[in-house]
Amino acid sequence: MRRNIVAGNWKMNNTLDEGLNLIKDINVNAKKTDVKGVQVIVATPFIHLAKAVEEAISPVRIAAQNCASEESGAYTGEVSAKMIRSTGTEYVIIGHSERRAYYGETDEILTKKVDQAIANKLYPIFCIGEVLDDRENDKHFEVVENQLKNALFHLSEKDFGRVILAYEPVWAIGTGKTASPEQAQEMHAFIRKVVAEKYNDKIADEVSILYGGSMKPANAKELVSQADVDGGLIGGASLNADDFFGIITAF
Length: 251
Ligand SMILES: O=C[C@H](O)COP(=O)(O)O
Fold this sequence. Notes:
Number of helices: 12
Structural class: alpha/beta
Protein name: Triosephosphate isomerase
CATH architecture: Alpha-Beta Barrel
Distance between the termini: 18 Å
Keywords: Cytoplasm, Gluconeogenesis, Glycolysis, Isomerase
Catalytic activity: D-glyceraldehyde 3-phosphate = dihydroxyacetone phosphate
Order of helices and strands: EHEHEHEHHEHHHEHHEHEH
Shape: globular
Number of domains: 1
Number of strands: 8
Bound molecules: glyceraldehyde-3-phosphate
EC number: 5.3.1.1
Largest sheet: 8 strands, parallel, barrel
CATH superfamily: Aldolase class I
Strand content: 5-15%
Enzyme class: isomerase
CATH class: Alpha Beta
């Protein structure tokens, strides 16, 4: 079912103590705030996951920021989807533009990660988005469509139903430049259309599509009030519980 979701992505920030204190602050905010049915997700580094799951109270759920493309074995430094699920974690971000750009994650690798996540009953938060050059050359729709097709469209209808999409124009991540509400809506509507063409209208209508890229309390309301923007994937502003809830209460 299409849900409103605000997911914080801590990226490589917070020691274990800092992270658990932030979860406590998020719990305090969650208790005193009417989140109006918004699903709150916090994507922590791997080291926090098991304790964050114990600490987080409803409606806060925990996500990993990545998972291995392989099931198990001699892959030093990797963390499998099964290991992540064994901590009680329910969600995993896959295909973040930083993973694509800095760690060479191709569509082929991402396909395997998505399959691992689904096989281990995690909900993938799958990131798509163009770089500035793509947008300036009017290739942004094509790029996003290919990212969807190449890593997700092998999924059955049932498995696709577990996926949350996050549109993150790379030029807006951590730059303070946000896509305008119109640019976000235009792309989200396009994504829904591409999903409808591949699957059907019902599936397209039910998939949650989050916007990510310099979303802050000050601009969140305009973005989430767009018809096809179902929430946000928040980087910088998720590192402070008050800012994070400033976005959650924008609905
Ligand atoms: O995963 C989150 C996005 O990369 C957005 O990051 P940002 O809010 O710091 O721009």
